[in-house]
Amino acid sequence: MNDWGVQELRLLHHCWPALVHAEGTNWCKIPDFALPAGWNRSNVDIAFQIPEALPGQEPYAFWVSGGLALATGAQITNYVFPADSTPWGGQWGKFSWNLNPWAPGARPGEGTSLVDFVRSFTGRLRELN
Q1: Could you count the other beta carbons within 10 Å of the beta carbon of residue 26?
Q2: Which of 1, 42, 104, 125 is most exposed, with minimal Cβ within 10 Å?
Q3: How far apart are CA 17 and CA 20, in angstroms?
């Protein structure tokens, strides 16, 4: 992980103190991430990767632990279960997702950041589709 990524990781820990970084990888996990109403569960572990080439390479996708379904039973768009695994084992579902626009500033934490990317997960999950 480059220096930019290390600094972004510090910012993430500040916002989510329970965040776990899989040492020696670019994977992060936030345990018990609260889900908006409308899902079959109230919380999940959520995982994502810190891109190797931050800030030029934007982050992409997030993973949720176990199977996730809409309370209505409707199909979830841009979601695959089971998906490729994370360093934490078990079954994970993957949402294809990016933050648009990805426009980092001159320093970590300025402009859009990984904090904004993670905050955007809740917005995606509120879409209920």
Answers
A1: 18
A2: 42
A3: 9
How, if at all, do strands 27-34 and 79-80 pair?
unpaired
Each residue's pLDDT tens digit, 59-84: 999 999 998 999 999 999 999 999 98
Q: What tokens appear for 38 in the block?
A: 């409308």
User: Hey, how many other C-beta atoms are within 10 angstroms of the C-beta on 47?
Assistant: 24
**Residue among 66, 65, 69, 46 nearest 120 (CA):** 46
Q: What is the largest CA-CA distance in the chain?
A: 44
Sheet holding 92-95, edge to edge: 20-21, 27-34, 43-49, 62-65, 92-95, 79-80
User: How would you write 35-64 as a 3-class SS string?
Assistant: CCCCECCCEEEEEEECCCCCCCCCCCCEEE
Provide the residue ranges of all domains of the chain, joining segments of one domain with +: 3-126
